[in-house]
Amino acid sequence: xxxxxxxxxxxxxxxxxxxxxxxxxxxxxxxxxxxxxxxxxxxxxxxxxxxxxxxxxxxxxxxxxxxxxxxxxxxxxxxxxxxxxxxxxxxxxxxxxxxxxxxxxxxxxxxxxxxxxxxx
Length: 120
Prior knowledge:
About 25% of the residues lie in helices and about 15% in strands. The protein is α+β, with helices and mostly antiparallel strands. The strands form two sheets. Strands 1-2 form a two-stranded antiparallel ribbon.
């Protein structure tokens, strides 16, 4: 059964596919952290606009973080996503993977490796 829909991005008006024909009731956006309420406006966003919106929302949240607040942060209570997303969970620098503050917040504790973006 084909569950994909053709949609128009409510931000940039790009046409994109919503849903996944291989998994019923699943969409590409399910790989992203569930940090938006449906009531926050608009219809679906295309993959590019959705990723940018996630990054903006996460960056705003991370800016409020202190080591004390990190211990009981909202990211810990979110459902875990199946895969890591470039520019949200990590980025590549000189061939090395660098984990973001968001990744560390989701993990929930310091690993002791003196990570660049450790919020703890």
